[in-house]
């Protein structure tokens, strides 16, 4: 099984490289894209305009521009998104979705557009623990998480005891709600990739800090309906954006500059 998975990823990389030289023209085709607007700074609501903004919005809008597509943006909760894309309700979905073998059995993944690791985000004045081991050792400490996400599974299997019903894990409907619970003291830690952590720390100066080391590496990809004819064009566009520095420019904008200028 692992060999098949690695071979599939290698094939994707080869296909991306081959298609990067000349991008296809999709002739103004409308693509229905879905996100959640709850994963700062990848997708969230601009408090000034009420509109969805973030890294993934910018990235996919740029993909659409390069491929001559139009994007019909829609919203969905995380717990229904993968199934909805699988069923063809939406053409493509994004929400900082980690590429896993289990999910790849349900939906098609684009080539990775971001690689990140999970870290422990805590309140800035936290002194009860400073890494995963010391957190796990104190039964009074709680972790806030969104069910079915990478941070949930890392909390269960990398920090706690492997019991997905462990009462020390408090579940929230959105990623942002878990962070708010951390800020208000209802939980003691939440896990997230370093790029998103920088976004939250930038948006809340002096409120949070990171403790401990990385707890795992993950790759994010767009999800598509199985057999989608959009996968190859999107992969080619992602590769072109990596090659010309667009991906790095988006990282700079959303993970470093945005909260300094807003």
Total beta-strand segments = 13
First-last Cα distance: 47 Å
Most strands sheet: 6 strands, mixed
Strand content: 15-25%
Please bin the fraction of helical residues.
40-55%
The secondary-structure element order is HEEEHEHEHEEHEHEHEHEEEHH
Number of helices: 10
Mean pLDDT: 89
Spans of at least 5 consecutive residues whose pLDDT stays below 50 are 1-20
Shape assignment: globular
Tell me the structural class: alpha/beta
**Rg from Cα:** 19 Å
Salient structural properties:
5-stranded mixed sheet, 10 helices, single chain, globular, alpha/beta, 13 strands, 262 residues
Structure overview:
This protein is an alpha/beta fold and 262 residues long. The protein is built from ten helices and 13 strands. The protein has helices at residues 2-19, 55-67, 78-86, 101-104, 132-137, 150-159, 175-184, 194-203, 231-243, 246-257, and strands spanning 29-35, 44-45, 52-53, 69-75, 92-93, 108-109, 114-123, 143-145, 169-171, 189-193, 208-211, 217-220, 223-224. The strands form three sheets. Strands 7, 8, 9, 10, 11 and 12 form a six-stranded mixed sheet that branches. It has a five-stranded mixed sheet with strand order 4-1-5-13-6, sandwiched between helices. A two-stranded antiparallel ribbon has the order 2-3. Strand 2 (44-45) and strand 3 form a beta hairpin. Helix 2 (55-67) packs across helix 9 (231-243). Mean pLDDT is 89; it is low at 1-20.
Briefly say what this structure is.
The protein has helices spanning 2-19, 55-67, 78-86, 101-104, 132-137, 150-159, 175-184, 194-203, 231-243, 246-257, and strands spanning 29-35, 44-45, 52-53, 69-75, 92-93, 108-109, 114-123, 143-145, 169-171, 189-193, 208-211, 217-220, 223-224. The chain is α/β, with parallel strands linked by helices and 262 residues long. The protein starts with a helix and ends in a 5-residue tail after the last helix.
């Amino acid at each position: 099984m692992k060999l098949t998975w690695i071979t599939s990823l290698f094939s994707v990389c080869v296909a991306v490289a081959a298609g990067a030289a000349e991008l296809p023209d999709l002739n103004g085709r409308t693509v229905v894209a879905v996100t959640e607007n709850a994963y700062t700074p990848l997708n969230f609501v601009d408090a000034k305009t009420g509109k969805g903004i973030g890294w993934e919005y910018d990235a996919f809008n740029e993909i659409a521009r390069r491929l001559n597509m139009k994007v019909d943006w829609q919203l969905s909760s995380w717990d229904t998104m993968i199934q909805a894309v699988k069923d063809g309700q939406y053409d493509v979905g994004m929400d900082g979705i980690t590429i896993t073998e289990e999910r790849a059995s349900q939906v098609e993944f684009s080539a990775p557009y971001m690689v990140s690791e999970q870290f422990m985000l805590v309140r800035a004045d936290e002194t009860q623990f400073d890494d995963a081991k010391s957190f796990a050792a104190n039964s009074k400490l709680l972790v806030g998480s969104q069910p079915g996400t990478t941070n949930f599974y890392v909390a269960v299997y990398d920090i706690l005891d492997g019991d997905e019903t462990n009462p020390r894990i408090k579940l929230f409907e959105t990623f942002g709600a878990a962070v708010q619970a951390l800020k208000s003291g209802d939980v003691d830690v939440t896990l997230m990739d370093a790029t998103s952590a920088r976004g939250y720390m930038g948006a809340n100066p002096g409120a949070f800090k990171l403790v401990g080391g990385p707890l795992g590496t993950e790759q994010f990809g767009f999800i598509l309906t199985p057999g989608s004819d959009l996968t190859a064009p999107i992969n080619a566009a992602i590769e072109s954006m990596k090659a010309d520095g667009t991906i790095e420019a988006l990282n700079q904008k959303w993970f470093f500059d945005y909260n300094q200028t807003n």
